[in-house]
Amino acid sequence: MSRMKIVRILIYVPACVVFLITVGVYLEYIYWAGFPDGFMSEKERAEKMLSTFFCWISIFFGFYFFRLAWISPKKNNSRKIVFWSYVYLVIILITYLVKVFLFAGLMDSRGG
């Protein structure tokens, strides 16, 4: 396989990773929120809201990465892909810090 074909395939990797992260966040924090009886604690409600916001931003980034990968054979977009990948990593870090530090004092549904 030539080097150009490998590069063209690797350009799609950030988009696939973004969509996998989105599916994981959706399944962990949105789909199972309130399971099994529908009760949602303060923490679950806050996590669901933050996760929904994060999923929408991730979907935007995923489609943007696919667009960059699609037009990259015509243009050299490697710097854009690297820059927006770093921006997405910063968004992941900010989301994680909000979840850890701001939601730490919220009541969850643990008993006892």
Parts with pLDDT < 50 across at least 5 consecutive residues: none
| Total tally of structural domains | 1
Main beta sheet, described? none
Number of helices: 4
Give me the count of strands. 0
Assembly status: single chain
- Name the shape in a single word: elongated
List the helices and strands and how they pair.
Blueprint: H1 3-10, H2 13-31, H3 42-71, H4 78-102
Helix pairs in contact: 2-3, 3-4
Summarize the structure.
With 112 residues, the chain is an all-alpha fold.
What does this structure look like?
- The protein is an all-alpha fold.
- It has one domain (3-102).
- 73% of the residues lie in helices and 0% in strands.
- It contains four helices and no strands.
- It has helices at residues 3-10, 13-31, 42-71, 78-102.
- Helix 2 (13-31) packs antiparallel against helix 3 and helix 3 (42-71) runs antiparallel to helix 4.
List the defining traits of the structure above:
112 residues, mainly alpha, 0% strand, elongated
